Amino acid sequence: MNRKEFRVLIKYCFLKGKNAVKAKTWLDAE
């Protein structure tokens, strides 16, 4: 997965709200 796709995925998860914690976990894992 390239960086642009990753950022879009994180943005989408943050917009969803309930998935923000999961998105942060992915960020920390990256």
Keywords, please?
single chain, flat, 80% helix, 0% strand, mainly alpha, 30 residues, 2 helices
Low-confidence stretches: none
Structure annotation, total helices:
2
Total discrete domains: 1
Average pLDDT number: 76
Biggest sheet, open or closed, and with what strands and sense?
A: none
Percentage of residues in strands:
under 5%
Proportion of residues in helical segments = over 70%
Oligomer: single chain
Shape: flat
Tell me how many strands there are: 0
Could you spell the SSE succession in H and E letters? HH
Distance between the termini: 11 Å
- Estimated radius of gyration: 9 Å
What structural class do you assign from the helix and strand content? mainly alpha
